[in-house]
């Protein structure tokens, strides 16, 4: 997808480097071909950032980028197949060969096929490389070319000044915010008397919410004019150089910039002289990195011995920038427009061009719905007003704008595009594909953070060696939150669920439009859109569709798919399968009648992520162990599923398994071999003679989250001890559950004699041996029917749970005490 080209090239290059190092090309009979591909991709990689950026608007570059992406995806397929053959056959211990790539090439037929594919791919890359010369791509990774890009960019840098356009000011919020911040700035001297400290104040908010407008109103306020003898407004865009920033500051301070040299030292001295002893207000608008203050402007201002009360006011999208500049807390967060103010702003932008205010007022109900879609963001409202200004003031035209999503995706207004584009451009090459992928998630279904991160890992967006991939993925997720590109849902703890605003979502989908399709049930031509071109990623949301049910057969042309996300009904007929989707890496399907396709899952040899939640699946294919790349399996809510195939224990790459709310009550022996598992939910405790499933948990030392059910089935504390819960030092979340002894009406489930005392003592002893490690952060206990809580919950001497932040207990039918 857009923005992933550079990261994808890095991944392929790493794989090719390993092959070259291990002299696989010798076994392939294609001496030099691996090195040739490596050199070509390294040459191309220098220009991929520029190619990705230009592909947004240039159709000829779009075609070139797509062809290169297809070639690199093909390379990953080749390497996958090579590794898969090795894993299927196993290493040759006799020969002392443990390298899977080397081993798989011992098969001459397989070696010939792979060698031929690499040669053909090299020829294709050679042709692509030759045609790249026509586009005059530049290397945006170098400082010189980056400056050249800023100077020649189609959009240019977003320059702002202290001048204020009063016509766009609406609402009481901005007046109150201005008064409060002006008071803070003009009374700053009361606390500004130590070590020439210059107080920094921060205005924080998402792009387009009005930070600059507020800063301008403050900058032009009468009290500010009176209090500060020097006022400097600097637009700190990302492309500006250090010397240019200093020169602008000198001009704003009315210093001598004519005779000043171009060296940084000379500019710093000139700025110091211009501000010497003056009470100064410096406004730094649109700050993206705190280093621009620390490394460029702070020293000359401090050396100028500014008068007490001198201040810096910044606007930024990121808390991390305010923290880095040690801004005074609390930061000022700009609120969205209230409904009346938003409507007033929209009217201001629409009135004119033949539309009078009375006509517009009659369309307020539709206008308010459009404003709601804009999430009351001033920039979005203003741009939507500009669009409506081009329409006649008729209900039908406004309703078309409200209901037609095409204009916001394929013809996104440039101003709104640019506002979000600034945030997008600041993302790293590894974070960009994660952001774009988030926009593909069907809106009608809640996706949890661990699901999204699992998809990112399966897609290859998250790379790591020493650290856990899930930890790195969580860092990516948290950064998207910090950058205000996704917003946490306050109905969930720990940022478990986030939302992406429609404006941001539309922008991201626009960037990914040439390789990803998002289709919803409200569209009548969904099948035509699916067949309009070949996509790499497809997101279908057919929930609520009442007619023209989408058929699985209609997807057959999408042979290049790597991701399929489908929520809602799809008509599955006899003969349907996954045969044409052999390149799939991610499959998330929520279709009630999915059971008809389950037997064909083993056709997906490249699959990493499998989620079939809430389907009528009654079995998994016995050959699931052949799907060697599987990392993530979610069976949540598959109530008809009662068994796991024995071969599942051979999935050495499996990191996530969710068995909650299924009919599964038994797990295969040798489950302990899944030592790569990080998250395990709904693990059923059951006895089979002297063997208990809970013993299989012992060797799973990489677990960070563990959910165990049916603990009443564990017959003794000695067996519970074999789970070695306390030894799992990476465990962050633990949920221990017994079958509830309380009925829906709140009454105890009892036999004639109630719960026998020996059963209560047994469950108490079992739970005593399930003590967690000291670093546990989240603990849940449900259905426990002992009278006494586990000893480790009553004494910190046994297990000092100093890191515990969340404790949940429910359905404790017989318990008589609370934890200490």
UniProtKB/TrEMBL annotation:
SUPFAM superfamilies: L domain-like (SSF52058), P-loop containing nucleoside triphosphate hydrolases (SSF52540). Keywords: Coiled coil, Leucine-rich repeat, Nucleotide-binding, Plant defense, Repeat. GO terms for molecular function: ADP binding. GO terms for biological process: defense response to other organism. Residues 148-170 are annotated as: Disordered. Residues 578-806 form the Disease resistance R13L4/SHOC-2-like LRR domain. It comes from the Eukaryota. Residues 442-508 form the Disease resistance protein winged helix domain. Residues 190-352 form the NB-ARC domain. Residues 10-91 form the Disease resistance N-terminal domain. PANTHER family: DISEASE RESISTANCE PROTEIN RP, OS05G0250700 PROTEIN. Belongs to the disease resistance NB-LRR family. This is Uncharacterized protein. It comes from Panicum virgatum.
